[in-house]
Amino acid sequence: MLTRELPTDMKFPAANCQLQVIDSHTGGEPTRVIIDGMPDLGGGTIQDQLECFRLNHDWIRTALLSEPRGSEVMVGAILLEPQSSAATAGVIFFNNVGPLGMCGHGTIGLFATLLYLGRIKPGEHLLETAVGDVPVVLHEDGRVSLENVASARYRKDVSVEVPEIGTVVGDIAWGGNWFFLISDHNQSLELKNATALTSHCTKISDALHQQNITGPNGERVDHIELFVPVEDATVADSKNFVLCPGGQYDRSPCGTGVSGKVACLAADGKLAESALWRQQSITGSVMKASYVVRDDQIFPSITGRAFVNGETKILIDVDDPLTFGITAGSAIANDTETRSASE
Ligand code: PYC
Q1: Partner of 22 for a Cys bridge, out of 64, 113, 148, 201, CB 3.0 to 4.6 A?
Q2: Pocket of ligand 1, candidates 149, 179, 250: which has the most ligand atoms within 8 Å of its Cβ, to mutate?
Q3: Active site residue 264
Q4: How confident is the model at residue 29 (pLDDT cuts 50, 70, 90)?
Q5: pTM confidence score
Q6: pLDDT interval class at 340 (50, 70, 90)
Q7: CA–CA dist 131, 145 (Å, integer)
């Protein structure tokens, strides 16, 4: 249930409209790709279009990822015409909080979607994202490999005092999003503990924010990642639990989180260039990873598989008080007489 408020300055569509979406999941984590019906985002770079989406069309995000139509667990993706003729597509990812720089599971879901639509063939592709171009390989068997943006550990062994928990020590890393990676903890990473793990990681996330522990330019470290060794080494090398910014946990191992992990392993000399790392998620799904070094930077590669599981025409009825999602005070926020139109 979405209990956050709609932004007070949110703009709304003036008339009823429709959006065509394809749903998929990557290791349990859903991706909802908008393939038709998007308003014009004004052209320009992916960053320019992301800014236009954020300022003028945020209603699409809440309408697609909130109850009663959607789910806050989903990551949304807007399929865009690429800027460069060398690229297959452009994309803007978003979640229940706002636009997302990069998304590993979402990239895998997007390529499964393009294959399902018959728009691409197995082979090499390039995807334009808000944080840079991402080379992608669609394999004959449907698996997708992506070479993520350069990833790096920013700080090692950072201590944070967390109310009700005590001192927590973790690494801060960039893998397309900002992560706090914790291996030393007393949590049991079992799916049945997901609510307790969410609460534990939320306390850590709040403490990092309150104590102003950030990325190098003040970026919020808004993904929390717990690790444990796996019992069965034939399946994976490590198991994780990843809390995303909007209070939802990733059902997949989280492609950008795995990238942050690989960058930390490389920095510690625990994973050689091109060696395989298998990261298992809290739901049991596995992504394979490795990295290469170019210009002294670490570029992780992530491989996974997504399955298309829905094809939907989303109907936006501006008279429906919950068409933009159930929110705190949504009956008032969604009142047609108090909305300001975006077009
Ligand atoms: O797979 O990178 C990812 C991701 C980020 C947030 C949810 N999934």
Answers
A1: 113
A2: 250
A3: no
A4: very high
A5: 0.94
A6: low
A7: 18
pLDDT confidence tier of residue 2, bands split at 50, 70 and 90? very low
Tell me what the mean pLDDT of segment 20-48 comes to: 97
Other beta carbons within 10 angstroms of residue 186's beta carbon come to 6
- Of the pLDDT bands very low, low, confident and very high (cuts 50, 70, 90), residue 7 is confident
Determine contact, residues 260/151, Cβ cutoff 8 Å: yes
- What is the arithmetic mean of pLDDT over 216-236? 96
The superfamily in CATH containing domain 11-148+307-341 is Diaminopimelate Epimerase; Chain A, domain 1 (3.10.310.10)
> What atom in ligand 1 is closest to the CA of residue 257?
2
Q: Is the CB of 148 under 6 A from ligand 1?
A: no
* The architecture CATH gives domain 152-303: Roll (3.10)
Ligand 1 lined by 256 (C-beta under 6 Å): yes
Active site residue 103: yes
Structural contact between residues 113 and 33, judged by C-beta atoms closer than 8 angstroms: yes
| CA dihedral over 260, 264, 267, 270, signed as positive or negative | negative
Atom of ligand 1 nearest to the CA of 244: 6
For residue 198, CA distances in Å to 131, 185, 193, 250, 294 come to 27, 14, 9, 10, 36
| Cβ–Cβ under 8 Å, residues 91 and 78 | yes
Ligand 1 close to Cβ of residue 255 (< 6 A): yes
Q: Is residue 99 lining ligand 1, measured as CB closer than 6 Å?
A: no
Q: In angstroms, rounded to a whole number, what is the distance separating the alpha carbons of residues 48 and 45?
A: 5
For the Cβ of 75 lying below 6 angstroms from any atom of ligand 1, the answer is yes
Q: Where are the domains of the chain?
A: 11-148+307-341, 152-303
Q: What is the pLDDT of residue 44?
A: 92
Distance 179 CA to ligand 1 centre (A): 11
Give the mean pLDDT of 52-68.
96
